[in-house]
Prior knowledge:
The protein has a six-stranded mixed barrel. The chain is built from five helices and 17 strands. Helix content is 13%, strand content 41%. The longest helix is centred in the last third of the chain and has 9 residues.
Amino acid sequence: GPLTIVFDSGATDSYINPSAYRKYGIPQGEKRLTIGELEWTTSDFPPDFEDIPLVDGIMAFDVISQFVCELSIRERRLVFYDKKGWKRPSEEKKPEWKRIRYVPKHHQGVETGMALNVHINGKGPIHLLVDTGCPAACALTADASRKVGLALSQQPIMDIPVKVADGIEVSKGVVLNIPFPGLEEARKILPDINGVLGGNFLKDFIVTFDVVNKELIFLRHQ
């Protein structure tokens, strides 16, 4: 290594590109990765599986859910907490933190992601998967776009208010409502989602993925 790995809560299985195995002389089938003292194991894909462009692989929900993770996109910081030692922040000590119960998503009996009900431009709710791998505030399916009154567009729609709950909203979100293959592939696994909630929304907050209590905890950047 080192390998460039994307923290991608919207992906189900962690993955390393076949080209990365060749580039770094890693034995095919070796799946253990480390960042400092943090170690995890990727999923087992065949050696002829396609590369993910621009990066060496992804850390997906199968690994993310093994920890309580705190993400600050603005500060470029990730903190991993051991679930066994995790203590939920006290509401008395942390009144500025906003907690949202997320909807766990499952595929073939395995928890594969977390979803929230979202309003866009005051309309909704629509059911979006939390996806740190998406650069926009939201990426929507065609039916979700119609539900919130947005016409399909080949260009991102700028400055749209996006709201999850009271106090958890952005007034200038970037919305992608161009049908694209990745989202359609996700719907094959999770057919009830209307799209994804991504980095352009999450960047305004420090977000804690509390998989122990099935919550997302938001602290707005000052």
